[in-house]
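All the exercises in this workshop are built on plain-text protein records. Instead of coordinates, the fold is spelled out as a row of discrete tokens. Once this layout is familiar, the rest of the handout is easier to follow. The record below serves as our worked example for the rest of this section.
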Amino acid sequence: MDSPVTLERDGAVAVVTLNRPERRNALTVELKEALHQALAEVAADPDVRAVVLAGSGKSFCVGQDLGEHVKSLRGDSATSFDTVEKHYNPIVTLLATMPKPVVCAINGGAVGAGLGFAMACDLRIAAEGATFATAFSAIGLTADSGLSATLTHSLGAARATELLLLGESFDAAQALASGLVRSVVPADEVLGAALTLARKLAAGPTLAYAEIKKAVAIGAVSSLDTVLAAEAAGQARLGVTRDHHEAVEAFLEKRAPAFEGR
């Protein structure tokens, strides 16, 4: 049986792929556990300096596998939603806090938790035919996978509330216009475009990227005093890195810096 998640290396880029194409990469416990393991592995690997999260087949991820979910509801409904804290929250946390950039290659539908995973990544590239939806209210649920935060931070409270209440789908062009994705490309070019972007990031100042991710997360929810203090601490940490010193020397010598991620 094929693994529900594959992990491949492309130099300093790791490609993590959801691999249930016949089920549009719907999320089972097995897939969620494999995804968490793969993300934890690449997060801890100093040789990996950028990550691509992708989906196999014609969809990125349509969220929870409802076939598995209904079996859980019919069995012990009191524990049916343990998966949110046990699986979804750790996966989103890994994506959002990983000390290296994560690029999401959205080759098709991104729905529910699938949209949540995509929004937890740092940058997103979508296929021309990709569609997006929250979908939770249609089955009597609220948001999970961080969407109540990521959509609000990206779109504002009014638009996030609209998408979560009504569950209306939107397409790649709308996602681009609202800034949710960086670019829209033909479906057969999505992975290649994501890899190109990830390779560029992998050649950059990895430690600075990690500090930028932390600073933006703090800036989204904190007071100005807290933000300024966090920025100062981040600059102090980066000031002693080899990459910063290399970049300054390269500037003075009028050459391109050679970043090492150290």
About this structure: The first helix runs from residue 29 to 44. The chain is about 50% helix and 15% strand.
